[in-house]
Write a structure and sequence with these properties.
Shape: globular
CATH superfamily: NADP-dependent oxidoreductase domain
Radius of gyration: 18 Å
CATH topology: TIM Barrel
Largest sheet: 7 strands, parallel
Strand order of the largest sheet: 3-4-5-8-9-10-11
Number of helices: 10
Number of domains: 1
Distance between the termini: 18 Å
CATH class: Alpha Beta
Helix content: 25-40%
């Protein structure tokens, strides 16, 4: 499988290009507060659509209330082919801390907030963002997955969301959800060429035809996840192919499996164009082989 084959994937029955856009970097530092340059943020969103991006990932708590407002201002009325994906399960406090919001009534409130801020009657996909081990979850927030899934399914059945996605789930949790009858629209988990702990979940998605959306596709500033673009093998691959290290890292993900959808984020038009260019990259088999050995 090369990076430029099969360049669309069905997401809730709609074809989306495999390189989308993640809005997490549009707010200020720490995904908190307004952007440093509002006009630049709006320009990035408009340029993304010009480049053919029709899958935009966001969250009401990015900012909070910043990413969705920028998306609405830049793109509403939305193109007919644009698929908007958001997520619920968290809030932000006045200091920018991430707060769990995992109870069914909070999930509903989160969906309603997304509907209002995006100015839509239905969000195409909403991911249930499960809290990871790095977040202390108070006793009152320790809700069973079955109760959460029931709440999200009810929202879908009411027509407020088009599909239920899952984020930050293990392969075992995904399998249990599928066994329980949940129609999973997509899975969004951390994964990249250097960090492949989630390989079992990717494999399960591939087997079941579920779009897999890796976040931190190029690593992150967090200590536990190194930056893909700084690895010598990735840099060497970029030099060999004439591509950027960013494009090599993204193209490797596209080549990993046909189920993969990318949502790299940026607040720069130049970086956006670089990211989108990964969709046209075909990595030679030898380069793919050396990158595969990094995992």
């Amino acid at each position: 499988m090369t990076a430029n084959e099969n360049m669309t994937v069905d997401l809730v029955g709609r074809p989306v290009h495999r390189v989308g856009f993640g809005a997490m970097q549009l707010p200020g530092p720490g995904v908190f507060g307004p952007p440093r340059d509002r006009d630049a943020a709006l320009a990035v969103l408009r340029r993304a659509v010009e480049l053919g991006v029709n899958h935009v990932d966001t969250a009401q708590y990015y900012g909070p209330d910043v990413s969705n407002e920028l998306i609405r201002t830049a793109l509403h009325p939305y193109p007919d082919d644009l698929v908007l994906v958001s997520k619920v399960g968290a809030l932000r406090d006045d200091a920018g801390n991430w707060i769990p919001a995992q109870r069914p009534e909070e999930l509903r409130a989160g969906v309603e907030a997304n509907l209002a801020s995006l100015a839509v009657e239905r969000v195409d996909v909403v991911n249930l963002r499960r809290m990871d081990a790095g977040h202390a979850v108070p006793a009152e927030q320790q809700v069973s997955f079955d109760d959460q899934a029931a709440a999200m399914t009810a929202l879908r059945d009411e027509g407020l969301i088009g599909g239920v996605g899952l984020s930050n789930v293990s392969a075992e949790e995904l399998q249990a959800a599928l066994d329980g009858g949940l129609d999973v629209a997509c899975v969004q988990n951390p994964y990249n060429v250097l960090s492949r702990d989630d390989e079992p979940t990717l494999r399960l998605c591939a087997e079941r035809g579920i779009p897999y959306v890796p976040f931190f596709p190029l690593g992150s500033a967090f200590e536990h996840m190194p930056k893909v673009t700084e690895h010598p093998t990735v840099i060497a691959a970029a030099q060999q192919t004439g591509m950027s290290a960013v494009q090599v890292g993204l193209a490797w993900l596209l080549a990993r499996d046909a189920s993969v959808l990318l949502i790299p984020g940026t607040s720069s038009v130049a970086h956006l164009e670089e990211n989108c260019g990964a969709g046209a990259v075909t990595l030679p088999e030898g380069v793919l082989g050396r990158l595969d050995l990094l995992g």
